[in-house]
Design goal:
Layout (H helix, E strand, L loop, with lengths): L1 H10 L1 E3 L3 E3 L2 H6 L5 E4 L8 E3 L18 E3 L4 E3 L6 E3 L22 E5 L9 E7 L4 H14 L8 E7 L2 E5 L9 E5 L6 H8 L3 H6 L10 E2 H14 L17 H15 L5 E7 L22 H6 L5 H17 L2 E8 L6 H9 L5 E4 L5 H9 L14 E10 L3 E7 L3 E2 L15 E2 L3 E5 L7 E7 L10 E12 L4 E13 L4 H9 L3 H18 L4 H19 L1 E3 L2 E6 L7 H9 L11 H11 L4 H8 L2 E6 L3 E5 L11 E6 L3 E6 L1 H9 L10 H18 L5 E6 L6 H4 L29 H13 L2
């Protein structure tokens, strides 16, 4: 799989099949769709130039290394539509010895800076919930005050607070704190909100200056004012009974924030950061009523339709997300509460704008603080720009042999009429070849699904071409267009050489992630029950191994999978047990949180979510080494480090935990044990500091209550129904009714070889 990683480092793309089948029928027989994961901002060794790209006058595809060039007539032929094009006069000096960067073979990915002189720092509009406990609010205020130093000095800041009503603070008024108060229990149109705030079109026509500047001030000009307001901010004083929830108008506050930026900063980089301490209980977008006797919805309630507010809230926040994305703004949600906060309904606001969702039990937790700080990391350039982008759009262009079925990820489809690249079949967000991806970070990844539209393999060309054109604004306001052009060969599965070529081109890691995304999208949009998705995954897996495994019909013992497919069944086994598909013991908010990150992370991170990594530290075996994600890996003399992306677990075996509690390394004879204990702590610290969102850190001992975080992820090869028992150095059993990986594979073999 190393060569697949090298391809990703070159272009930021990984395909499930790196050799394409020759017909649609062959594609269906292969079970795993022809698809890819593309990271638009992947750090590749490409070329950045300060001039616009050269498009084909017929299909719009950009000049790339696969074009045929006639240096004598100064013409180039587009590989997508075979249309000849004339080079502009700036290219009059090109020759075989003097090539422009975009047609050099090594530069299949190019970046074009379309407006190099532009310099605009983003706007950050903070939307704070004041209905939380005083201690929580104090901790949140302290974090926000400390975070202001991470923002660029010339970035603009705005502040909105809300309880039962919405308070829009006028930061430009220095004499005393001043705020506009709007009702939170009433749905208002954007124009009405803008009129009440004095930022509508009429105010712009009558004023010589920008009316919105009162609410959005440069950080260096308003830092003292913001600090003063935050320090004086108190818990919402609107009374409520003991058997009622606080009146919280999160939906109305978000609407005011979107409306304000729409009027004052349309097309300008901006982020709306919502900090919520509970579910919306009044106004538009409410999730649950104020009465505590009305419990907040669960997965069972959603399946049974006992959710009076769910669908209306879902539609409301999705519309807010589309409005914000159309204006070039991003919505992030930070939720800090022991109970649910309505993130399941609000997901449309973040998914459609490319924003983040972060859940924590409290705003004083390490998950919130670490994730919030990580948002403002820089890109490592000399200018120290923030590593975030805005107003992203991505378009896919295909040669006639292939068409795009759709995309799955944090995006929403744009209308692209009369595009010849769109397939009849839709997968995910289909019916178009262009998508809005809003704000994206360097790790943001979107998946695309394709159809081989050829019906007859005899008339097919040897290769096809795909081009990804991504346009976005970086944090300094410059518009950049990244163009990645990829060529893929065809192989006829009916021939021996073609069959072997397809096998060699299978990337089982990328395929597992793409199937996981497809399954999550299906369960959210098409299926009501998890069992339907599990059956769909099982059928696809059986079809795949039936096609590519070596076996004798009716003889499971003869079943063999080649190295290219060896790990794929294991990935599917762990996907079936993951929180993405099984919602037992998870709230709707938690499930949406997990799924949101699966739909935006790259192959490496997504694979860690599906099949966590497990590292072992022991004195007998030497340094840290990977071990099987299996209960048999537990040993009294080992320390295990589990990473499932959302949690980092340090697990101490029974004997090692005794050494730890006795602090035995402080004795001169056992001083060497100090380094042994520091190893997993340092490795876990590196994971916590490098990841967004910051994982939950769990330190536990064998047989302790917290050990459930590890045990729930391990393959239950030893259960209460098997022979393995405690003692004698054997691993402890897992008390579960789930089948083990061994049993799963045995059933797979029987079904695959069945006649």
């Amino acid at each position: 799989m190393a060569h697949f990683v090298q391809d990703e480092q070159k272009d930021g793309a990984r395909f499930a099949w790196n050799i394409f089948p020759t017909s649609r029928l062959d594609q269906e027989r292969m079970s795993v769709p022809v698809s890819c994961l593309y990271t638009p901002l992947y750090q590749v060794e490409g070329m950045k130039v300060n001039y616009p790209p050269i498009p084909c006058k017929c299909c719009g595809a950009v000049l790339n290394p696969y074009c045929r060039v006639d240096f004598i007539s100064k013409m180039w032929t587009c590989p997508f539509c075979l249309q000849p094009n004339q080079f502009p006069h700036e290219y009059s000096d090109i020759s075989s010895d003097n090539l422009p960067a975009e047609i050099m073979p090594n530069f299949t990915t190019m970046e074009y800076v379309l407006d190099a002189k532009t310099k605009n720092s983003p706007i950050f509009l903070f939307v704070l919930d004041t209905c939380m406990q005083t201690e929580e609010l104090t901790e949140l205020k302290s974090t926000l005050i400390q975070s202001l130093v991470y923002l660029p000095e010339d970035s603009a800041i705005g502040l909105i607070t809300f309880g039962k009503h919405v308070h829009v603070h006028e930061l430009g008024f220095e004499e005393c704190p001043k705020a506009y108060v709007l009702r939170g229990d009433k749905k208002m149109e954007a124009k009405k909100v803008q009129s009440l705030l004095g930022v509508d079109q009429r105010a712009y026509n009558e004023s010589k200056t920008n009316p919105g500047a009162r609410f959005l001030q440069r950080r260096e000009d308003c830092e003292y004012q913001v600090n003063s307001i935050l320090e004086d901010l108190c818990k919402d004083s609107w009374p409520h009974k003991n058997d009622q929830r606080p009146a919280r108008c999160s939906g109305a506050a978000l609407n005011v924030a979107v409306s304000l930026l729409e009027a004052t900063s349309r097309g300008h980089n901006g982020r709306i950061l919502l900090f919520s301490g509970g579910p919306p209980t009044v106004g538009p977008g409410m999730v649950v009523s104020q009465e505590k006797k009305d419990t907040i919805r669960s997965h069972a309630d959603i399946l049974k339709g006992k959710v009076p507010h769910y669908h209306d809230a879902l539609k409301y926040y999705a519309e807010l997300g589309e409005r914000a994305a159309a204006a070039g703004h991003v919505i992030d949600i930070f939720a800090g509460a022991m109970d649910q906060t309505g993130v399941a309904e609000m997901r449309g606001a973040t998914v459609k704008t490319g924003g983040f969702v972060v859940l924590d039990d409290a705003f004083e937790g390490d998950v919130f603080k670490g994730s919030f700080k990580h948002m403002f990391v820089t890109d490592g350039s000399e200018e120290q720009n923030l590593a975030m982008s805005f107003s992203g759009q991505i378009e896919v262009k295909c040669s006639p042999e292939v068409k795009v079925c759709g995309a799955i990820g944090a995006a929403y489809p744009l209308e692209k009429k009369q595009s010849k690249c769109v397939a009849e079949r839709e997968v995910g967000l289909g019916g178009t070849s262009s998508w809005a991806i809003g704000g994206c970070d360097p790790g943001y990844t979107i998946s695309f699904y394709f159809d081989v539209v050829n019906q007859d393999s005899k008339n097919l060309k040897d290769q096809c071409y795909l081009q990804f054109v991504t346009t976005y604004k970086n944090s300094s306001g410059q518009t950049i267009q990244r163009v990645t052009t990829i060529s893929k060969l065809f192989a006829d599965i009916k021939t021996k050489d073609g069959f072997e070529s397809l096998k060699m081109g299978f990337d089982q890691e990328a395929a597992a992630v793409l199937m996981a995304r497809h399954a999550v999208y299906k369960i959210q949009s098409e299926y009501e029950f998890t069992m339907d998705i599990l059956r769909w995954l099982d059928r696809r897996l059986i079809m795949l191994v039936k096609m590519f495994a070596e076996y004798q019909k009716g003889n499971p013992e003869s079943f063999r999978l080649s190295d290219e497919f060896m790990y794929y069944p294991g990935f599917m086994f762990h996907l079936r047990r993951s929180n993405f598909l099984k919602v037992f013991n998870s709230t709707p908010d938690e499930t949406v949180f997990y799924r949101c990150f699966l739909l935006r992370e790259n192959v490496t991170n997504s694979l860690v979510m599906i099949q966590p990594t497990l590292m072992a530290y022991s004195l007998e075996e030497g340094a840290c080494q990977p071990v099987y994600l299996d209960v048999s890996s537990i040993s009294p003399n080992r320390i295990l480090l589990l990473d499932d992306f959302f949690h980092v677990v340090v697990f101490y075996g029974a004997t090692v935990h005794e050494w730890l509690t006795q602090e035995i390394w402080k004795q001169p004879d056992y001083a060497y044990l100090e380094e042994f204990f520091q190893g997993p702590q340092e490795d876990s610290k590196n994971l916590l500091e490098s990841r967004m969102p910051t994982p939950i850190f769990v330190s536990c001992a064998q047989n302790g209550s917290q050990s459930r975080f590890l045990m729930s992820k391990l393959n239950p090869s030893i259960t209460q129904n098997t022979v393995g028992q405690y003692g004698g150095g054997a691993a402890p059993p897992v008390f579960t009714d789930d089948v083990s990986l061994k049993v799963f594979l045995e059933h797979l073999k029987k079904l695959a070889v069945a006649e």
